[in-house]
Each structure stands twice: as C-alpha cells, then as structure tokens.
Design brief:
alpha+beta, 21% strand, signal
Amino acid sequence: MKKAFVIAAAVLLIVSLSSCSGGSSGPVSSGGEESPSSSQSASIGDPSQPEASAQPEIPAQNGDVSINLPGDFFESDPDFDPSAYAQKQGFIGAAVNEDGSVTVTMTKERQQELLTDLREEIENAFEELAGGSATPYVTNITCDENFTHIVMEVEREAYEAAADMTPVTLGFSAMLYQKFSGQEPHCNITVKDAATGEAITNAVYPDAIGR
C-alpha cells in the first residue's frame, strides 16, 4: 500500500468519526479468520473484542473481506467512480450504498498487505514522535498488538506546557488500523509521567472526539 493511501484513509476516519460526534464510522465485516499482526515493543492490556455490526451491502465471498467506508470521505469527488477506485486500490470491487457510504471488497491477501504497510507506517510515526523535534518531551510510546491501548511516556513539565495533540494522532492511527483489520474502532490512550509512572491523562477514542 502506498503511503498516500494511508494518509487518505486517516483523513477518512477523522472526518467520519468527527461528524458522528464520537460514534463509530460504519460497519465492518470480514470473511475467514482475523488477520494476524505482529506486536509492538510492549504489550499492554487485552485486545478489545469487535462489536456486532450489520452486514455491508456487498457480501464478502468466502475468504474475502468487505469494509464499509463513510460517504463523507468521497464528498470531495463529485465524479467518484467506485469501479475506478476499486481498480486503483487493488480491490475486488466497490459500490455506493443508499446511505452514501461505500462498501469495498478485497481479498484477505490484499487486506493483509494493507495492514502490514499500515502497521509499518504507524510504528515509524511512533518512533518519530518519541524524542522528535516537534515533541521532544515524548520519551516512549508502546501499545498492544491491536492498538487498543497505547501508553505515551512524557517529561511531565514540558508536556503540560505544550499545546500537545499527540494523543489525538495516536488515537486516529490506532482506529485506522482497527478499521481495516475488521475491529470496531476503540483505543485507550494513557499519557504517563516517565519519571514517576503516574498517569497524567487518559482518553478513550472515539468517545473523546468532539469533547
């Protein structure tokens, strides 16, 4: 998956979840077993269980995956062509539903490609945030394998003095991965004092959106 697709998908999730004021962005269903994924440098808590959701309007064939994407993502393209979009992204197909959402269907292999590349992008972003020039107060970021719990360790004084939006970035990154893996987007973000281990803030996404 190209990096441009990851960025576009992140925008999709931000727009859709923000417009829902903390609600989930749409149903996701997958055929076969859940795609495997490697764990990050630390495991924190248990992965959340996906919630039951309605079937998308394009049923997945045996072994294929269907994902429902919010219509908000495609509003900027008045000439949106689902067939061309599916071909460009390497999907089996795409169709616009009555509510304006778009259901895309892909093979499990294509889903795994997306998840592998997406995980790599997220892990690289975590590494850049920890001690990066824009966030020097962030000392370490760890998470469980499904991005349901992320812990960001910081230098407390510098963190509290900054207008920091890193937890929001972490939350959307996690929910993006979960969306394409077939989970219901849900991530607990804990910010801790690196020196004492004390929790500074805690937020659950998407519940925290719009507050």
